[in-house]
Amino acid sequence: xxxxxxxxESWSKQEVIDVVNFFALIEQAxxxxxxRRELLAAYRKFKQVVPAKxxxxxxxxxxxxxxxxxxxPVVKKARESEQQTxxx
Length: 88
Prior knowledge:
UPF0223, BH2638-like_sf, UPF0223 protein AOX59_01250, mainly alpha, Annexin V, domain 1, 88 residues, globular
């Protein structure tokens, strides 16, 4: 990992942890597999930090530019799947 996670300087320490954890799970979904429930729980925490859809799209775009991993398809697959694990 030679890139930085997108974040806002105004976030609290816990908010930064929640966002970093969510993006780390997105990475894990591409590189290995991730527990569906854990991913959806992390996404709910991410949405508490980034409630606006437009902001979410901005952070997802920045993350994809930096890492090459798209967040939205992972979240979509987790929402629609009944499997316990998600992999891309």
